[in-house]
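If your schedule permits, I should be very grateful for your opinion on a structural question. I have a record of one protein: its chain in single-letter code and its fold written as discrete structure tokens. Would you kindly read the sequence against the tokens and tell me how you understand this chain to fold? Thank you for your consideration; the sequence and its tokens are set out here.


***
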Amino acid sequence: MNIDWAVVFATLVGPVLAVQAQKFIERSKSKSDRRNRIFEALMTNRATRLSDGYVQALNQIDIEFHSKSDKPVIDRWRALFGELNNGPPDTADRATAIAWVDKCNDRLVDLLMAMGKALGRTHSEEEIRRGIYYPKGRVDLEQSQLAVLSGLQRLLDGTSALKVENVGGAGPSELQIATLRKLHDAYDETGALRVTFTNAPEKGKLN
């Protein structure tokens, strides 16, 4: 009886190889999906860079883009990371702050272009740089929230004083003066509260 070992081998190993191939395809697709989600999160939130989605996507780049072929992405992410961590001081003038923001914008565009190329996307630089819709109302709201939080932080740190203004006039009103006088007269020279008994029997009870 002649045994066709090739057929036997294919019969035994074929299903195993098919399962492994399927798993490899699934892993590759899962990795591709994760990388694409990072890119899409950065593109979606590139106008709202304080959002959780934007920050989380930046911090996931090193996790999903780490092969040798991803070096252009990593290099551009490092360049953006360096700019973000070396911003101008709080005392910087407006021109310095604007120059830093422009530089961060350029670094972000470079990063998104490299990521798009690694993922087979065809977005142009103009699309990435200009294709953003962010209404002015949202800008005003975000700036107002930052101003309130910044002012509160300075107040808690003791670097700013809480301004209290008398809106009734240049000085205290007559009612305020009268109230203060009554409070003053209610205490003697030693700081003890003055007590006057108007009913003699009650005084005896206290003694």
Summary: The two ends are 127 Å apart (CA to CA). The mean pLDDT is 80. The CA atoms of residues 42 and 58 lie 7 Å apart.
